[in-house]
Design brief:
With 227 residues, the protein is an alpha+beta fold. 39% of the residues lie in helices and 18% in strands. The protein has one domain: 3-Layer(aba) Sandwich (NADH Oxidase), CATH 3.40.109.
């Protein structure tokens, strides 16, 4: 017997020729491999509609039981950005000066990073990604019923990957920032207790004098294994 809650629809799918597949992948590869982590931003504004389109792409990501356990908070207010910077720098300074093991600091040195995070104020906007660990449904007695979410970290990670790719294709610069701990973001942005900060992404255009560290990526033969 079929499940009465299951209501399938025909799949909309476009089958491409191998040549079309290669052409699309080559163009996408060209765009996304040009992405670099940027720490020097221009304050020039980014249109709301462009940001919304990129977030809509992220929101199309697959998720456990299709529960879509994410929310994307767009921060443009200068005072809020300043508060985030101050709190993030406090955590980062404690990390670099007190908590970080030497091998971690050694790994970071070629990237030229430290506890100072001016980009959190200079970038025209921040996207703060929160993971929704469980849903909340009000009950008649005034209590709340928790709704279990599945594969939350995996689902939100996929959505963040799509978001970064969408922003890059749109011609925007990004940075993935994860100050630890990140609880201050919940407080500053007034998020409920069932949400936890996952990723902080400054978004904008690079400053005219922006520089990036010299890095390489592993070649295909090193990351792809054939069996």
């Amino acid at each position: 017997m079929s499940d009465p809650d299951y209501h399938p629809v025909p799949l909309a799918f476009e089958r491409l020729t191998p040549e079309e597949q290669a052409a699309r992948l080559d163009e996408f590869h060209r765009r996304v491999t040009a992405r670099r982590t940027v720490r020097q931003f221009s304050p020039d504004p980014v249109p709301d509609a462009i940001v919304d389109r990129a977030i809509a792409v992220a929101g199309s990501a697959p998720s456990g039981a299709n529960l879509q356990p994410w929310v994307f908070v767009v921060v443009r207010d200068p005072e809020v950005k300043r508060g985030i910077r101050e709190a993030a720098e406090a955590e980062e300074r404690a990390f670099y000066e007190q908590r970080a093991p030497e091998d971690w600091l050694e790994a970071l040195r070629p990237l030229g990073t430290d506890w100072r995070k001016p980009f959190l104020e200079i970038a025209p906007l921040l996207i703060v990604v929160f993971r929704i660990d469980y849903g909340v449904e009000p009950c008649a007695d005034g209590e709340e019923r928790r709704i279990k979410h599945y594969y939350v970290s995996e689902s939100v990670g996929i959505a963040c990957g799509l978001l970064l790719a969408a922003l890059q294709v749109a011609g925007l610069a990004t940075l993935t920032h994860t100050p630890s701990p990140m609880g201050f973001l919940s407080r500053i942005l007034g998020r409920p207790r069932n949400e936890k900060p996952y990723l902080l992404i400054p978004v904008g255009y690079p400053a005219p004098d922006a520089v990036v560290p010299t890095i390489t990526k592993k070649p295909l033969d090193e990351i792809r294994i054939l069996r």
